[in-house]
Amino acid sequence: MNPVKALAEQFVRRSPMVLLAIGLAWAVVDFATLYVAAATEGVLRIKNGIGLLNNFGLFSTLFGNAVSLYLAKKYYGGVCSIRISKAVIGNSTNIEKELSVLGAMVKMRGRYRLLIYGFILVGTMAWLSNVFGHVFDNPQVRWGHKVFDSLDHPLTFTASRMHNIYTWMIVVPFLAHVMIYCSFQLKRTLAIASGEGALTYDVLNPDQRGGFAFVDNANILFNVVAALTYIQVTLHIETFEKMNPEHVVAYVTLTVVLIMVNRLFLGDSYATINALKLEALNRVKSKVYRDDKLSFDILKYCYERRLSALSVANFVIKTAAIVVPGLIKSWPSIAKALNI
Q1: Distances (CA, A) of 257 to 99, 121, 140, 322
Q2: Is-contact 173 180, C-beta < 8 A?
Q3: Overall number of domains in the chain
Q4: Which of 131, 165, 143, 158 is nearest to 55 (CA)?
Q5: Helices (H), the chain
Q6: Residue 176, Cα to own-chain centre: how many angstroms?
Q7: Are 189 and 98 in contact (CB under 8 A)?
Q8: pLDDT of res. 332
Q9: Which residues neighbour 57 within 8 Å (Cβ) at sequence distance 6 or greater?
Q10: Helix (H, G, I), strand (E, B), or coil: what is residue 88?
Q11: d(CA 148, CA 44)
Q12: How far apart are CA 261 and CA 222, in angstroms?
């Protein structure tokens, strides 16, 4: 069994916290390997260059690798939680059928493996381009200064290439694979269940989202992933005097994919929910208006004054994605000014 498929099997079986522990363990091993190699060759810091400890982009990638499996599993679990939602009424056979298909997608059964193989191919091309840039080009010219993982430092060169294999050929392709298939299947499941009358918008549901809070939670997780990706793009670009094309292409491609998925799949999911909500509110409106005009006015006022917690959460996430890279980049100057 190839390592990515083995990862997919374990991904479905393990809990989010176990996957977080695995991700953190790999990140620690990855960083320790890089640190020992860089310390041995004296390139933890490089005067007028980028040493290991000056590479903000690399640290953002280590963090991203550590939490990616956890976030992907939480997203997968959020989509699957439709089976316990109070919005589901009547026969849920087709919902279970679609969730079973989602399991096959994530586990890369049959034709569902093609998507991740495509991402792995893109990651491999980026990795080869990066290797050729280090071997056949002058890294100092290519990136604008000396770098800790050039061929002049064979141990860190090797450790860094291994880090990139893990990141570009395993973590990033698998993350994209899970996010895309989960979003696609969420859209399909909601559309099928709604068309068959198996879903309703429960106006008085305690989750304040008609029983569809699981979609809001999935949307927040999706935006967290997109924000982390944006932070990595920004820090990789700002680390070097000149742009590192492999990092930029790899992460910008993933960002574009995530945004497209959000618009194509999650957007349609919310359209379905809003249609169900409108139907439910119209039913409530008609009934309350007939029974009690005062209750109708109170109900209308409450809905007009409601603040969307989802909108606030996503605003905070997206703002952090813009502010955090700037703070990290400017921290040496801030610390110096504050005498820290």
Answers
A1: 23, 15, 32, 19
A2: no
A3: 1
A4: 143
A5: 3-13, 16-40, 56-80, 93-106, 114-135, 139-143, 154-166, 172-195, 213-239, 245-261, 267-291, 293-305, 309-337
A6: 8
A7: yes
A8: 61
A9: 232, 235, 236, 237, 238, 239, 240, 244, 247
A10: strand
A11: 7
A12: 10
Task: Write the single-letter amino acid at 127.
Answer: W
φ, ψ of residue 47 in degrees (nearest 5): -65, 130
Q: Is 137 helix (H, G, I), strand (E, B) or coil?
A: coil
Range of the domain at 97: 3-337
How far, in whole angstroms, is CA 38 from its chain's centroid?
30
Q: What is the mean pLDDT of each run of 10 residues along the chain (340 residues)?
A: 78 92 95 94 87 88 94 92 82 83 90 89 87 80 79 91 91 90 89 83 77 86 85 80 65 72 78 83 68 57 52 60 61 58
Decide if 198 contacts 90 (C-beta within 8 A): yes
φ, ψ of residue 244 to 5 degrees: the values are: -90, 105
**CA max distance for the chain:** 82
Residue carrying the six token digits 């893990």: 166
pTM recorded for the entire structure:
0.81
